[in-house]
């Protein structure tokens, strides 16, 4: 969810604003041409740096910018750039000399890249001074456009398995997952399934129009017959397309009460451009900081899984953002399972396909579902469950109908009724929009409290009947912890955690007096939670970016 920020997506988006301006841009009116030189001409791998030198600009302005496009020869009047950098990053002398340079981190999206210079295109001054096209660089290539990248892993719900997903630029040859118990030696081979999607698969703009970029090809392979607790090394790709760098994971332990697990839980992460460029949201660096802190947690052996409860990349119809998000989380998601569920910014609610709204920018859930292959039972039914250690995890989609009598509600009822509490004594339930929330948003249909009432009416009875222990939610950009609650009364029922504080702008719309069912509410700091679970104990800690440990909860059996 985005509150104050949400309206910015609909009325002010830096990438779309630039495209709108370019639909009537003027050729630059100065006697000598502007030089736009990008180097190196060929990049070796995804994430390499390109330096762009600008010179010969007469009357340089703070509104000048360099925009990045891929492929390099797109029609810039019909396509938004991947991102852009403004003149404030061209060097301290640019406004005096008309010469400067900028550095861009470029993700391999399996096509060449071009850098376009525009005069006076940033901000609102262009309305009186008219922006103008000043020139473009020669195309910048990758040494391997088919480079396999964006690797990430997920549990399948079956013992002894791990799913690996990645992207490449071709499907001309079968992609392979190679796995071994020793670094550099991969005795196990697993062929991948390959998929992609087209603009016609999406349901609206900008996803199927100016925000579109070909995603390349998306692959998934499942490593099987793994030894629980063993470390496995892996690479993916093919001899024709090349192989990914080596990564490793620990095979999950079998479910059971004697096992213990540690995981990270949060929602509403998004992405941040570490090179100082601007993209569609213009967020601060909170998504990047959270990702780095989670990486440190994983490296320290304090988390073996990520639970991301919706609003994942915030691509909202700008396809390139998915590529960059997956590169951002790669250091974590390539070594521990990154388990997701859809939020409102993954799936449109239009054309009768769901409830209300256009928060995914026309994606209608397709890029999310193609890129994050969770152990669901059917397409566009993104709810699933799995056992991990002493916990049975159940995820739902608040972006699909969940009322009594729907396919999803029937599935939740059946799944919860089938839990073997001797095998998994703890049950953790997750969805995006909260069932219990401190929020002043009573907007009809999709308001925080409106949806919460609907969830309590149709889903809460299933949680209470089946003695669900804990529920995780996102959507409201805050951290909140409830009492054990059912039917708005403290005393018994699940403890509800709202963990939407991972990256996007915090939600200040809370009540002056905290609702009686809430025990802790924080809207002042981004962060994440860590969880430790064994047969008798469930311990959660909330870590803020600034204040360290901010809250903790300890449930016992």
Secondary structure: elements and pairs:
Layout: H1 6-11, H2 14-22, E1 26-27, E2 35-39, E3 42-43, E4 48-55, E5 65-69, E6 83-86, H3 94-97, E7 100-106, E8 114-119, H4 126-129, E9 132-136, E10 141-142, E11 149-154, E12 162-168, E13 176-180, E14 188-191, E15 193-195, E16 217-223, E17 231-238, E18 242-243, E19 247-250, E20 261-266, H5 286-299, E21 306-308, H6 320-333, E22 338-340, H7 366-371, E23 384-388, E24 391-395, H8 407-417, E25 426-430, H9 448-458, H10 460-465, E26 470-473, E27 479-486, E28 489-499, E29 518-522, E30 527-533, E31 537-544, E32 548-556
Parallel strand pairs: 1-9, 3-10, 20-21, 21-22, 24-25, 25-26, 26-28
Antiparallel strand pairs: 2-4, 4-7, 5-6, 5-8, 8-9, 11-12, 12-16, 13-14, 13-17, 15-16, 17-18, 17-19, 20-30, 23-24, 27-28, 27-29, 30-31, 31-32
Helix pairs in contact: 5-6
Keywords:
six-stranded mixed β-sheet; 2 domains; 10 helices; Immunoglobulin-like; disordered N terminus; 557 residues; single chain; 15% helix; seven-stranded mixed β-sheet; alpha+beta
Structure description:
This protein is α+β, with helices and mostly antiparallel strands and 557 residues long. It has two domains: 13-142, Macroglobulin (MG2) domain (Immunoglobulin-like, Sandwich), CATH 2.60.40; 149-556, Metallo-dependent phosphatases (Purple Acid Phosphatase, chain A, domain 2), CATH 3.60.21.10. Helices cover 15% and strands 31% of the residues. A seven-stranded mixed sheet has the order 23-24-25-26-28-27-29. A six-stranded mixed sheet has the order 22-21-20-30-31-32. It is globular.
């Amino acid at each position: 969810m985005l509150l104050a920020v949400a309206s910015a997506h609909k009325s002010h988006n830096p990438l779309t604003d630039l495209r709108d301006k370019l639909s009537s841009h003027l050729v630059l009116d100065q006697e000598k041409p502007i030089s736009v030189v990008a180097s190196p001409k060929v990049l070796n791998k995804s994430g390499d740096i390109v330096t762009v030198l600008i010179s010969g600009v007469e009357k340089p302005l703070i509104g000048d910018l360099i925009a990045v496009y891929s492929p390099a020869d797109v029609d810039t009047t019909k396509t938004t750039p991947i991102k852009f950098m403004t003149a404030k990053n061209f060097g301290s002398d640019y406004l005096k000399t008309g010469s400067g340079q900028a550095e861009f981190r470029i993700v391999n999206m399996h096509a060449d890249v071009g850098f376009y210079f525009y005069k006076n295109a940033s901000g609102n001054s262009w309305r009186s001074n008219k922006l103008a096209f000043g020139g473009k660089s020669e195309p910048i290539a990758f040494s391997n456009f088919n480079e396999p990248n964006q690797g990430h892993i997920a549990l399948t719900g079956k013992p002894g398995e791990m799913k690996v997903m990645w992207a490449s630029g071709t499907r001309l040859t079968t992609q392979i997952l190679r796995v071994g118990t020793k670094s550099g030696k991969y005795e196990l081979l697993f062929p991948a399934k390959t998929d992609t999607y087209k603009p016609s698969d999406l349901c609206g703009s900008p996803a199927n129009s100016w925000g579109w970029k070909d995603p390349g090809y998306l692959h998934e392979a499942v490593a099987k017959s793994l030894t629980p607790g063993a470390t496995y090394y892996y690479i993916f790709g093919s001899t024709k397309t090349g192989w990914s760098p080596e990564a490793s994971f620990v095979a999950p332990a079998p479910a059971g009460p004697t096992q213990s697990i540690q995981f990270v839980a949060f929602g509403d992460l998004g992405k941040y451009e570490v090179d100082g460029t601007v993209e569609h949201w213009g967020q601060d660096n909170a998504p990047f900081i959270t990702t780095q802190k989670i990486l440190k947690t994983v490296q320290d052996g304090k988390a073996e899984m990520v639970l991301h409860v919706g609003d994942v990349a915030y691509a909202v119809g700008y396809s390139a953002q998915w590529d960059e998000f997956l590169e951002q989380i790669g250091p974590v998601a390539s070594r521990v399972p990154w388990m997701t569920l859809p939020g409102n910014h993954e799936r449109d609610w239009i054309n009768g396909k769901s409830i209300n709204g256009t928060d995914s920018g026309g994606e209608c859930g397709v890029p999310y579902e193609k890129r994050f292959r969770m152990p669901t039972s059917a397409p566009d039914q993104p709810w699933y469950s799995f056992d991990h250690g002493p916990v049975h995890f159940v995820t739902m989609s608040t972006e699909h109908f969940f009322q009594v009598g729907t396919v999803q509600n029937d599935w939740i009822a059946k799944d919860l009724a089938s839990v073997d509490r001797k095998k998994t004594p703890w049950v953790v339930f997750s969805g995006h929009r909260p069932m219990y929330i401190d929020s002043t948003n009573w907007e009809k249909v999709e308001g925080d409290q409106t949806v919460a009432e609907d969830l309590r009416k149709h889903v809460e009875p299933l949680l209470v009947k089946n003695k669900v222990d804990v529920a995780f939610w996102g959507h409201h950009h805050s951290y909140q912890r409830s009492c054990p609650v059912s039917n708005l009364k403290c005393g018994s029922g699940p403890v509800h955690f709202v963990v939407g504080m991972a990256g996007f702008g915090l939600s200040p719309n809370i009540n002056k007096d905290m609702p009686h069912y809430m025990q802790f509410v924080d809207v002042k700091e981004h962060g994440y939670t860590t969880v430790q679970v064994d047969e008798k104990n469930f311990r959660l800690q909330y870590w803020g970016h600034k204040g360290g440990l901010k809250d903790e909860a300890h449930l016992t059996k």
